[in-house]
Amino acid sequence: MTKIVLLLFVLYTSVQASQFDCPALSDGDSLSQTQLLERLTHSCRYDRLERPITYTENGSRLPVDVYVRWYIYFMQNLEAHDLQFKIHALLQFRFLDPRLIFRKVSPKRSQPILGEANLRDILWMPHIFLANERDSSIMGTNEKDILTSVSLDGTVIISSRITATLYCWMSLQKFPFDEQHCSTYLESWMYNTSELILHWEQKRPITFNPDVHLTEYVLKQIWSNKSTINADLNDLRHGAFAGNYSSLSFTVQLTREVGFYVMDYFLPSMLIVGASWVSFWLQADQAAPRLMLGTSTMLTFITLASAQGKTLPKVSYIKVSEVWFLGCTLFIFGSLLEFAFVNTIWRRTSNVDVKKLKSKYILRSTLSPRLYETSTFRQHNADSVSMTASSASERPHPAVNYRNYLTKPNMQADGGVATEETRKFYEFDIGLMEEGGDENVHENRNSWTTLTPQEISQWIDAKARVMFPIAFIIFNVLFWTFVYTF
Fold first, then answer.
1. Can you give the CATH number for the domain in which 172 is found?
2. Which residues form the domain of 129?
3. Tens digits of per-residue pLDDT, 311-322?
4. Residue 60 lies in a domain
5. What is the reported pLDDT for 142?
6. Which letter, b or e, does each residue of 414-452 get, where b requires 16 or more Cβ atoms within 10 Å of its Cβ?
7. Where does the chain cross the membrane (predicted)?
8. pTM for this structure?
């Protein structure tokens, strides 16, 4: 009996203590905001570690609906080498907490309770993070740049001014004529979709400051998205908790301004390529100025191309800018090869026989020359050998054509007399001429033209002055058509 009485006394004492420790909410109009909040958030009726709970008509628990809004103050240009961008923004969360309703407690209050970080610290907050952030922080001080509002119906609004550096995977195949799509992802950290769901605000969920201007890009459009992220035990982005997590994202489409690249890279590279063609107007034997011009333009262009490449990440695919610089490099290198070719021809000592004064014949005779002195030497030896040919039985078969032999005969060093093998060859050659081939030989020889190596070099330079610019124009047409079509 004594034990029962003692137990009842302990229970009565605890009830009286709890009633004394838990302040009443009556007459809220006479309380200050701080006093009202202290009573609303007293541990006897409010646990900041527990999320707000609402129920359906059948008694099941509903998840907390958190509404999100972005206001972008400033957006920095994309940093291509680090694949990131930076924003200064106001991030706002809105949700309903029934435990903070004070309309009935303080009916005369018409304005929400406002506070800063100290008010936020005593309330339950949804744990939401930027999934693609590299760095983020509260702008200014933690006290002044967080605004907390509690309305009469228990609606809580948390506004924070933040600075965030966000990752953006950029596609640079068409650089610098590219468009980039950079997204910002918000995800719930510890509450899955059965506990918390993120929503965009109905009116203007994403707003940019009208004074936001990007120097290198133009903001084309913005769109938002809502999705669910599935996490398992192998995915630790949400800790070690598996489940479906609510996610919000918004994407900005940015188009790069090409004016800077045209003025600083494309036009200078065109001028450098054009400067390399000046060597075509210099004489082929002027090796020093032509070589200096070619190498200086090549080195200048390589320096220009490398300066542009330092601002980009080392990706494995080929960019449009690299195609342009490679094409220009080939044109400059081609002018160097042309100089080496005409200089080699200029230094030849023998004239070249050309069948016709057309490009294909001149090039064919230049690459495999029919030396004029060889044909003269053959004609001279043919006249000498014809006097020793005495009988027709010594003649070779007339069906063989001597013009198939273009090699200059070897001469002996002591007297300049042809060897026995060479003499037999010319005896065979004269045999053909005695049968009536001599007139044909002279007729064919009269149709050929003899050009000096200097004339051929000048002819090649004259052709290069026309062909190189035409080829470069065709390259430009194909390049710019691809850039603005595909």
1. 2.70.170.10
2. 22-256
3. 888 888 999 999
4. yes
5. 56
6. eeeebeeebbebbbbbbbbbeeebeeebeeeeeebeebe
7. 265-284, 291-311, 323-346, 466-484
8. 0.72
